[in-house]
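Cross-posted from the bioinformatics board.
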Amino acid sequence: MLYVLEDTINGILIGSIYGLTALGLTVIFGVLKVINFAHGSLLMVGMYTAYWAVVLTGIHPYLALIIVAPVMYFFGYYLQNIIIKPIFKAEKDVREPITVIIVTTGVWYVLDNLSLLIFGPQYRTLQDNPLRGKMLEFAGMMLSIPKFWGFVIAIVTAAAVYWFFQKTRMGRAIRATSLDRESASLMGINQYRIYNVAFGIGTAIAGIAGVTLVPFYNVFPSVGVLFDIKGFIIVVLGGLGSIGGAILGGIIVGVIESVGPQFMAATWTEAIVYGLFLMVLFVKPSGLFGVKYDW
Amino acid sequence: MTREKLQSLSLVLIGVIAFGLPLLVRSPTYLHILVLLFLYAYLTTSWNLVGGFAGVLPLGHSTFVGIGAYTSTVLALQYGVSPWIGMIIGGGLAVIVGVLIGLPTFKMRGAYFALATIAFAEGIRVMVENIEYLGPFKLNGPRGLQIPPLNTGLANFMFAEKEPYYYIILVMLIAVLALTYFISRSKLGYYLSAGGEEPEAAMALGVNVARCKLIAMAMSSFLTALAGTFWAQFTLFIHPKSVMSLDISFEIAFIALIGGRGSIAGPVLGAIILRPVSDLCRIYFGDKLPGLHLIIFGVLLIVVMIFQPRGLQEPLTKLYNRFLDRFAAQPDRIR
Amino acid sequence: MTILDLKRLVKDFGGLRAVDGLNLSVQEGKILGLIGPNGAGKSTVFNCIAGVYPPTEGEIYFDGTKINNVKPWNLCKQGLARTFQIVKPFSSKTVLYNVMVGSYVTTDKRSVAEDRALAVLETLSLLDKKDIKAGNLTIADRKRLEIARALATEPKLLLLDEVMAGLRPTEVDEMVKIIMGLRDSGMTIFIIEHIMRAIMALSDWIVVIHFGRKISEGTPKDVASDEKVIKAYLGEEYGVS
């Protein structure tokens, strides 16, 4: 019984980090109505940025945030501005931006394989970092310290993003655009600049997720793929565009993955996650938590 | 010469070149590349019935490749059924699965539909990886199935040389292109395009959009599964990560978009452009620059989508029409 | 003979009652106009008839059969065609292609569909534009194409939803002429329109609705002089003073 409890808590911790990796995806979808297939790659870029920031400057892994978040913000901002915006404009008469979805897949291929060319296929881990393998003993259970901090960062980030969209002028402009592009642009909001900012924010969140992963996870060129499809599942579970839903969806997947192996072969838990995902898509495509856009 | 005559002449010429190519290309490596090129042109043309004409974005067609490959292989290995028969049975199975996937998913909007098809495909792949025996059928989990190259010959769909495979896939490609051509000019083709572009208007004009999409999905799944059997017989080794991999679905979508989604020539053009890139990069830069072809894929896709959002078939069709005008008009004037 | 009959039609959206107990009928070979201020529920009435939404209460009879829950495509096959207020052409396709989608409804043969489409284009004087992509048409031509597609389905009843909105006065006159021509050829038409002079000139009978309720009906002349109608259009204060 204690094992199940321990697995559940570990599942919640890692799940909230999954949620954090998916949070940027949901922000981008909420505004652009595009599934960003390159999101896993953005996470990978974030992880490399965090890794090199720590290795080259020797700062504490979590202090890398002050470097990674702004770098990733501008990376996303210009990625949208230079590559995705022209395709949006070419396809603006079409109701569903299908081409954009595939183009983000192109971005994924390019980023993953460029990093393979540049950094090589080897797995990198932060040597002698103060967090690696550190455990916290709590009521007879062993909990990973970096995962615990990841959980804290995930919750704080989600709360901050929520606050940003509710309270700031920019956040409200973004929400207005996400609800109705045409009316927003009539109000003097530049639709494409909003898209740039939203993409930048989504990418910065992927960077934050990268920072939380680096202390206990290997960095390698295709690491994003592991989180890519998981990310889609999480955002649909939680409701595409919902901030709280992303974290909760992540926790659900995390708990299934960590408790499931107690009862079945580990690979079957993956099938269960897909099954749950399909069920939600069919029965309640707005997500488990019933909010279409909670921002 | 009239314009129509010139047009059919140029098509016949392309056909003659395609059939004569193995006489010039003797190297098995290059024949192999050509077979894969035609295979992907065939797969993308089949995909195009749904992804192009019906205007949705299916990203799980690898499932049907897998169903075709596994069905014929299991039947041949365990029951000695000829792969030709297994091919048809696999196609039938794929139709059932395709319709079961299509029924709930065609109600969804763009992005959701794409994700649902991915989830189906990945879910099925994960299950096959976990299944040693499906009832009496041995799937062999992640290790896949090997076809011993013992009885070569047409009846067994197995050959020592590449040429027979080349001609089989070429005929399959021509057949599927002809089918697409007839569909695009038929009532179903009109209804699919109409429903893909403006579903509400199409419904008001008497189009049962969901039913048309299901019919297209059934045809597309069937045709894709046939290619699965071809794949299995060509490589003689299948496993979930090869014939059911998401990469197949993405590559099909890439080829379709670069060539031109919803056009007849688009998938073939796309395959002609992308496949050699991928194979030649693997041959010449595979060890030094792994993944180079994927970078080229991605860059090519982005550039084409920015400058030619309808794919490369559009400028090339214009060029071809100008060529026809130029050379067909003159004899007319003389007459 | 009555071809379309609405009996106590009610349509609710959540708590909002968009159509409230509407009775009306369309006579064969005639033009019925439906008018009312913005938000009166005119388009909702059309959408209920055309099978887009099922009515909350009441019955709709078309050609003698109840069609409350019949799907749009089946209604079209039964002979009920409509246009959309916001035109929805298949933009990437030619004008002829657009119209052929409509004419395919009663045939599977390409040649039959093509001939009928060409005939319809001829009557709407769109024939010279048949090879132009629908997305490149002017607004007036798009509205015409919208009618052409609907006509190609060979309907018994044509629902026209604001086919003159956004047109210049001369274009409105042309459209009026086209619709008159259709009526003369025996077509039954049910039309929603905002341009008063057009609908007054066209309609044999007019129904006025306000907040989903019928407030008046009669010949164009009767309706134009009805005090309730004037009040609804110009506001309560105007009527009182």
